[in-house]
Amino acid sequence: MTKSKTVMVSAAAMVDIDNKVLIAQRQEDKFMEGYWEFPGGKLENDELPNQCLTREINEELGVDISDSCFTPITFTTFNYPNFDVIIFLYICREWEGFIHAKEGQDLKWCRPNDLFNIKMLPADIPLISYLRDTVS
User: Fold this and answer.
1) Where does residue 134 fall: left (phi above 0), alpha (psi -120 to 50 degrees), or beta otherwise?
2) What is the mean pLDDT of the chain?
3) pLDDT (tens digit per residue) in 73-82
4) Which tens digit of pLDDT belongs to each residue from 52-94?
5) What pLDDT score was predicted for residue 28?
6) Which has the least CB within 10 A, 3, 102, 123, 132?
7) Cα first-last separation, the chain
């Protein structure tokens, strides 16, 4: 049996003033297209999870969180058929600029409890309960 590759991902629970969380829909050309996910992405070589998050949020959403208050809140692991993933989830309530979909993805603000009824990436599903209990 071959060991699958492990991918490390930093993701953000971007929380607005109404305690809604931002999710993004995966585009047609991506793995698991059409599923919704927390914004973020894969760590690059020699990149720390917080550095990855700052870079990815700027690339995807056009906002700067480098001087903002964001903090790690939990992590999860998931085994897809061809690879494993470790997701570091951060919570962010402040950012510089206005969020917009720089990569053409659909964005949606949702109450954490409503995320259970959305077609979320399987790896992100374990994070929903934590957000429901944390974001109020």
Assistant:
1) alpha
2) 94
3) 999 999 999 9
4) 999 999 999 999 998 777 999 999 999 999 999 999 999 999 9
5) 87
6) 3
7) 44
Position 1 scores a pLDDT of 53
Residue with tokens 């492990």: 6
3-class secondary-structure state, position 51: helix
| 62 contact partners, CB below 8 Å, separation of at least 6 | 97, 98, 99, 100, 102
Instruction: Using DSSP bridges, classify how beta strands 5-14 and 83-92 pair: parallel, antiparallel or unpaired.
Output: parallel
pTM higher than 0.90, yes or no?
yes
> What superfamily would CATH give domain 5-134?
Nucleoside Triphosphate Pyrophosphohydrolase (3.90.79.10)
* Dihedral of alpha carbons 102, 108, 109, 110, sign: negative
Cα gap 124→26, rounded to integer Å: 13
E-state strands within the chain: 5-14, 21-25, 36-37, 40-42, 70-79, 83-92, 107-110
